[in-house]
Design brief:
single chain, 165 residues, two-stranded antiparallel ribbon, 4 helices, 50% helix
Length: 165
């Protein structure tokens, strides 16, 4: 009962079957031991988490460049396809207009041009990545490697101009 005037029972150790200390002195050898066990060596404390590989502004600049690259390439490829669909739905007169004398219509010409537009979008993506994102990531990687090998912070350098290839 919560209002009893009796004191609570004494606390038991969590593992009463385990003795608190070993039953033998520290220099006592067990039957299978030929010599006392070696003393544990003192080791340096475990290092904390590794610091970030550069200034946060470097990482922010890399994320921004990569985000811009993804958005532009996605909007290029999907924008063309969306334009094709909108023209097909809302401008059927334009899409059925013949181009030249061979029976090719504007809609078919735009449909055939989707593959080259996708390939150009991929090429522009790679070119822009090499020009903007790759130099930033290479600079961060180099600074992180120098910091790892020297054990200290690497000097901040601006690698926006690109890596020599």
């Amino acid at each position: 009962m919560p209002h009893d005037s009796q004191p609570p029972p004494p606390r038991q150790p969590p593992y009463p079957h385990r003795p608190a200390r070993p039953p033998y002195p520290g220099d006592y050898l067990m039957p299978w031991q030929s010599c006392p066990p070696p003393r544990p060596r003192r080791t340096a404390p475990a290092p904390g988490p590794a610091p970030a590989p550069g200034n946060h502004s470097d990482l922010r600049r890399l994320r921004t460049a990569y985000r811009l690259l993804r958005r532009l390439s996605t909007l290029t490829a999907l924008g063309y396809f969306t334009l094709f669909l909108l023209l097909s739905g809302y401008a059927p007169g334009l899409m059925t207009r013949p181009v030249g004398d061979g029976g090719l219509t504007t809609g078919l010409l735009l449909a055939v041009c989707q593959l080259p537009v996708a390939l150009v979008s991929i090429a522009v993506y790679e070119w822009t990545a090499r020009r903007t994102v790759d130099p930033l990531s290479t600079g961060l990687r180099d600074r992180a490697a120098r910091r790892h090998h020297t054990g200290g912070p690497a000097p901040a350098q601006d690698r926006r101009k690109g890596a020599a290839r």
